Amino acid sequence: MILRALQHELGVHSKHLSLAPGLFKLEQKLKNNYMKQLGLLFGLMIGSMAMYAQKANLVIFSDEGTKFYLVVNGLRVNDQSLTNVRLTDLNADYVKAKIVFEDPLIPDIEKNTLMLVRGHEVTYNVKKNKKGQMVCNAYSDVELSQIPAQSANQQTIVYTNVPPNDGIVIRTGNMGGTTTTTTTTTTTGTTGTGTTDVISTNVGVGGVGMNVTIVDGTGGTVNGSTTSTTTTTYSSTSTTSTGNGGTTTTYMNNDCIYGMSETDFRAAKNSISSATFEDTKTSTFKQVVSSKCVTTKQVKEMLQLFTFEETKLELAKYAYTYVSDPSNYYTINDIFTFDMSKDELSNYVMSNKRN
């Protein structure tokens, strides 16, 4: 009677009650599976967190002894050209890398997504392919706990210890061009009857030295002196072209691989735009371009600060000598209004083509 009353109250038929034990077992089974899946998911999360807490090493070497500089994520890693670089403490799965060779005639190698493996040391080999072009290919992948001892010619650099820099590479090895060193020493001494100025200049070009000394004063014995020395060294190559106007030799700065830092670039643009007269703007532009590392994009932005197309064309020709990426110089044509100006710059670039 009680069971019937309960059935009536709940609206449940007896056949449904007979299924209750089965439903209970199914519910328990589902709960157990859910807990297992939850535990598996939790374990995967812990494993993933542990994996991402691990760092990676990157090794790039040249088995042909070709020296290079390495730039990773915009940071210059080594200031001296090397044949074997090990970079540690990288907290990433991929990095953007650029290999700049000491020899300026060898094109750079750029890798926008150079793959790393957390907890591993990944090694890449720089060598020539069958076409004679330098390439960077994967070589090996070893767990950090099993990496071999550092080789004698390998330099290890901790990535997190790399000081902030603008990524500009200054080649310090053999440039394949002319290296000029100028040293100027000025000595000023006081005598009993007047002042004696002695200026001594030593100039060395291609291993040939020359010394010039100029003495100007009233003579006498120097009782005291002050000496200051300034040394300037730069590297350059030159190209010679012959046209209707005669033979022209263009000297190019080999030291620039990247452009100015953003801070320097803003300062340069401000210096140009703040000048009142076009002639002053022109001289400032030339001073900036000849003394700083500039990219085509930076030259393009600075040229847009000028009003007259004739001035823009003149300065575009001037700047071509100094840009770090001459292969992109065709984009300068965008700033010109007249096709005649575009054609003239294109012809100039073709006549003074750079590698």
Calculate Rg over CA atoms.
35 Å
The helical percent reads 25-40%
Helix tally equals: 8
User: How far is the N terminus from the C terminus?
Assistant: 103 Å
Per DSSP E runs of 2 or more residues, the count of β-strands stands at 14
Question: Which term fits the overall shape?
Answer: elongated
> What fraction of residues sit in β-strands?
25-35%
CATH class of the largest domain: Mainly Beta
Main sheet properties: 5 strands, mixed
**Uncertain segments of ≥5 residues (pLDDT<50)?**
173-254
CATH topology name of the largest domain: Immunoglobulin-like
**Architecture of the largest domain, CATH level 2?**
Sandwich
Strand order of the largest sheet: 8-7-1-4-9
What sequence of helices (H) and strands (E) makes up the elements?
A: HHHEEEEEEEEEEEEEEHHHHH
Q: For this entry, what is the oligomeric state of its chains?
A: single chain
Specify the structural class: alpha+beta
| Average pLDDT for all residues | 74
The count of domains is: 3
